[in-house]
Amino acid sequence: MYPQIAVIIMLLLAGCVPKPQVLMPQLPDTYLIPTPEEAAAIWEGESYGELLELFRKNCESYEAQRLYGDLCEKADSVKRPAAFFRREFEPFLIATPGGETTGLMTGYYEPLLRGSLEPDARYRYPLYGEPEDLLEIDLAELYPELEGKRLRGRLIGKRVVPYYDRRHIAEAEAPVICWVDDRIALFFLEVQGSGKILLESGDVLHVGYKNQNGRPYRSIGRYLVERGAIDAETVSLQSIRSWLAAHPEAVETLLEVNPSVVFFQSRSVGATGSLGLELTPGRSVAVDRRHIPLGAMLYLESEDPLDGTPLERVVFAQDTGGAIRGKLRADFFWGSGREAEAKAGRMKSDTRFWILLPKAQEEMR
What is the pTM of this model? Predict the structure, then answer.
């Protein structure tokens, strides 16, 4: 456990009125509110055996080990999971500097596309791997204050220029992993970040995020709302797909509104997040790592996007996404299949987020 965190926790617990504070020096823009009174409700009804296995799996990542330290080692020998979680973890409500605690949670899923290893009249849309001419520059090597910032581009002579945008991506020196029959489905595969390709042979090819062209992500849903094509209250993956199906002549122009292009790689397992771990449906979320550390165990207070029933559970921050930006923001992984697609496409839920951190050591209280 970080010594700074333990000291600040001790000071805050001794105070009278909880208020947002920066508790994690490595995340100076993340504000947390101690909520010890919430602990019982957070763990109530939890499936502790399942949660322990998920915590152990999460601890396979360096980020989780750095955050939870010896608790990752202790988890391997735990005999009473309920006592372990109740005893060792403290909930902190994530807030803005002004004390706002309600944010937005959307959803994502693992789509299934049909494809072929060879192009033909049906399978004519390429799913690209990482281009050979794509440069990726870690700016922190030159400017330490820009840690975490990367520049992507390509060389023209001795100059580094922006990489090809979506309109010109066919000019890239990119290998083609396979060819698919639906360019709209391919576009949404990029948004989701991973998926399955059912090949003509009957084999299933798992693909996942490898890199991207460095261009900013632009939401085509927001673009359609701004132009009055779709109502803001009803915009979803499903409504965007329906609009595209009804306006085939506008598909290419609309997709090019988003200049960002994702490059994929073949995988031996299903959807894998930024930690390199296979995602667990209903238990993995994507976050903005500038505000919520990857590998963190979180508690969500939200609602189901289809029936509005409470969605309250412990999850793990195991992924990131180009559209996931902000202090109070997450993307909930629903898995694969029609129900997962329906829930992911419609999810825009007001949500509160708690991060579950190691309790301060007794001798420091």
Answer: 0.79
Residue 193 lies in a domain: no
Q: CB-based contacts of 227: which residues, under 8 Å, 6+ apart?
A: none
Q: How far is CA 260 from CA 215, 218, 263, in A?
A: 5, 7, 10
C-alpha triplet 226, 228, 230: angle, nearest 5°? 95
* Beta carbons of 9 and 360 less than 8 angstroms apart: yes
Question: Residues 21-40: pLDDT tens digits?
Answer: 887 877 887 899 999 998 88
Asked whether residue 204 is domain-assigned, the answer is: no
Same domain, yes or no: 289 and 348: yes
CA-closest candidate to residue 148, choices 316, 291, 354: 291
Q: Number of structural domains, the chain?
A: 2
Both 156 and 71 in one domain: the answer is no
Cα separation, 290 vs 30, in Å, equals 8
- Domain boundary residue among 119, 150, 173? 173
Domain that holds residue 336: 3-107+276-364
Residue 150: how many other CB atoms lie within 10 Å:
12
CB atoms within 10 A of CB 179: 19
- Note the pLDDT tens digit of each residue in 343-355: 999 999 999 999 9
Q: What residues contact 62, with CB distance under 8 A and at least 6 apart? A: 295
Q: Which amino acid is at 140?
A: A
Per DSSP, the three-state class of 240 is helix
Q: Is residue 102 part of a domain?
A: yes
pLDDT at 14: 44
Q: Is residue 300 part of a domain?
A: yes
Percent composition of the chain: helix, strand, coil (DSSP 3-state, to 5)? 30, 30, 40
